Amino acid sequence: MTVPGFDNPLTWILAIPLASAGLLAVLPNWRLASWVNVAVSVVTFAASVSLFHYRPEPTRLLFIDDFNVYLVALTAFVGMTTSVFSAAYIARETEAERLSSVHLRFYHSMYQAFLFTMLLALTANNTGVMWVAVEAATLTTVLMVSLYRSREAIEAAWKYFILCSVGIGLALFGTTLVYLAAQPVMGEGADAMAWTLLVQKAAGFQPDLLNLGFVFVLVGYGTKVGLAPLHAWLPDAHAEGPTPISAVLSGLLLNVALYALLRFKMIIASNPDTLAPGPLMIMMGLTSLFVAAFMLFRRGDIKRLFAYSSIEHMGVITFAFGMGGAVANFAGLMHMTMHSLTKSAVFFAVGIITQNAGTKRINEISGLTETTPALGWAFVVAVLAIAGMPPMGVFMSEFLVVSSTFARQPLLALPLIVGLLLSFAALLWRLQGMAFGPPPAHPHPAHGRPGGWWGAMAYAPMWAHLVLVLVAGLYLPPLLAQWFQNVAGLLG
Amino acid sequence: MLTALSYDLAHLIGATVLMAGFALLYQRRLFAVLNTFSFQALALAAAAAWQAHIQHAPHLYFTAAIALVFKAMIVPFALHWLVERLGIHRTVETALSIGWTMIIGVALVALSILLVLPVTAHSAALTRESLALAMSVVLLGMLMMITRRNAVTQVVGFMALENGLILAAVSAKGMPLVVEISVAFSVLVAMTLFGIFFFRIRERFDSLDLNYIETFRGDR
């Protein structure tokens, strides 16, 4: 297999996080390490932006097309902003003596390793390499979820490890079956696993094997997307890990797993004799939406609340791609982006709130707009955005999903709207108490509330994301819209 | 070239892996589970080596070596050591009686044969039957993970599932990256074993029994 050379930006996008994962593992000073983490994430993002100007030719190992280029940029962007937030978050955690410097060395190293695996999964031109990358992403996040070593954190990490390992195991079986389906047409070897070649010749693959393979891939990668009823790991993993990790898990990892699923859907869609993947995805999407919507009402833990909201949004996105067609695919792509940006902003806010309050219990958090107005109002804006309030971008994409469903399958639009309204109500109800309730009588003596530099670093990523989501909701640049349309066409 | 003997041997070894998968289900003692798993890994190593021979694919010998050294020796040994060191209960705790587990296991094998054989009608005979065997092993591994409570047996169940996946991958003629995939799995398992020891789960819970761990499940 040929390794792309150094004139290829993809090499840099992958080599930088990988090399820094090694470097950060041996860097003893955590404060320096958190700055290095920010610096390399910025460089990775810059390299990913260069892909828009110069698109390298696909190699046997890596490739870039219209679809994955925007996910690479999004991943590198959220990876960058989260690294900034993480620096502020880590500083306070260390002052509160919840994390030691050994933990932090490990944490920073794993953060970059995690970015590397996600970027590799997105750019791999081989179903097997992609699988290895997703598996490695699971491993790095399991280690980060268990960072606090508390009873709950270890339980969450164990559950996450067991469920997702089985999930990716099944995905590998599906990958093998798809290889076998492609083998008679493509011949033996790496060609039968290359995305770029598979899509061109998918029409001649054995349809029965493809069907069986797709079901395994759907269940396997679907576990990682957090689709109900395979979502059990997700709330625990989000709730117990460090908050910057919750942000990247929700904002990025779920997208990567969904990307893997969509690539396989592209293959099966190009074969006329296979079953339609749409109904399966619609069903799983709606189930996730409803399970999450009802679960939202009963959450007592703020991070768990937004973890269930991630399941809800992943359900909506899967539903949209299941509907298929130009408008629904467009809406799904846009919703992936908007959810990614908004949900990580929500988790940034939640991170500061839980550090201030010293608890994750929703009951014990109240009156945020009075005690810390800047944070409180930012939280209000972020939660309204994720709940789908206009004029934010999430509303736009949800509106598109609903309207395209109405146009084609009006009956399916009904449960979709009910699910969306239920989760909207749940989030608003929870928000009300936290943001506008009476402030607590005995506030928690917070260690070093963010101020000065650290404060700016904690708040800036959140505002940056919210401004982007607002702008996208009000005005989507024609260039971007055109390009979402192209990709929507690719997805079939 | 492929002779009738090479088919028969490949199927015999594949069936041995499946038999070991069944044997895992009816063990009542933890050390017996580890020994049975070790035997299954040994059979997998033989299957990979035989496939390497008949497919003229030397890289599969690496897969066989990984199965032999890592899975059949190091992992069972490490788990053995962990069980002794951490003082874990040595009996297998079942969530479902062994009799029922076996009946469901037979049904799962029937299911995978009924599912795989028709859809692979156009594939090579060697691949067809091995795939059906591999899928049965995968499903039995899942069954073990579901019906056994102890964390060590869950890890063994996962590795049995993984043995099925590797069996499928080596049987798929000319499939690239099989070695990389088995290395990736091994790293995953190694990190987990390391994690069990490192986190000292024993110190935090009264047992590795997941029932203790899962008291926090649900609304919090």
From TrEMBL, chain A:
GO terms for biological process: ATP synthesis coupled electron transport. Keywords: Cell membrane, Membrane, Oxidoreductase, Transmembrane, Transmembrane helix. Its main location: membrane. It comes from the Bacteria. One of its GO terms (cellular component) is plasma membrane. The keyword Transport does not apply. Pfam families: Proton_antipo_M. GO terms for molecular function: NADH dehydrogenase (ubiquinone) activity; oxidoreductase activity. It is found in: Cell membrane; Membrane. Residues 124-416 form the NADH:quinone oxidoreductase/Mrp antiporter transmembrane domain. It is a multi-pass membrane protein. The chain crosses the membrane at residues 12-28, 35-55, 67-90, 102-122, 128-148, 160-182, 212-233, 245-264, 276-297, 317-338, 374-399, 411-431, 451-476. PANTHER family: HYDROGENASE-4 COMPONENT F. This is Hydrogenase 4 subunit F. It comes from Magnetospirillum aberrantis SpK.
Automatic annotation (TrEMBL), chain B:
It is found in: Cell membrane. InterPro entries: HyfE-like. The chain crosses the membrane at residues 6-26, 33-54, 60-83, 95-119, 131-148, 155-172, 178-199. Coiled coil: none annotated. It is a multi-pass membrane protein. Its main location: membrane. One of its GO terms (cellular component) is plasma membrane. Keywords: Cell membrane, Membrane, Transmembrane, Transmembrane helix. This is Hydrogenase-4 component E. It comes from Magnetospirillum aberrantis SpK.
